């Protein structure tokens, strides 16, 4: 245990030697707020040099704090100007994006309206055609075999110079693969 105490004391003294400047500065600053600490009753903390150092430290800190406060006050208007500029820039960008999105939505709505109208017209034409075909079928009797063959013979005798167009519902004829 005695040997361990010596190692601990040796380590503590080394720490004090390494941190002596920091400890002196801290004790000088703390002297103004806690002048009755027991350490201030011992040398070098009760010497006139240390007391002068403590007073100078307080004045140096007060001056540094005042300079920092002034710089901060000067900085506040700059920050306000920067924030205002940032907000204005972002607002303009957002308005631009919103206008672009509104144009795109309007274009999409117009395209959708056009497609809807086209589909409605096509559906109406198809329904009308279906009704016409049904009416035609109901109004005219189906041709008999005799009349159908006569009609075909007449067509065969007349030469055709044009290729008939396929009906909308029919697929165009394609030639068989070779």
Automatic annotation (TrEMBL):
UniProt region (Disordered), positions on chain: 136-178
Entry superkingdom: Eukaryota
Assigned keywords, A-Z: Signal
Gene3D superfamilies tied to this protein: Centromere DNA-binding protein complex CBF3 subunit, domain 2
One of the record's GO molecular function terms: DNA binding
Keyword Signal assigned: yes
Signal peptide: 1-32
Protein's recorded name: Ndc10 domain-containing protein
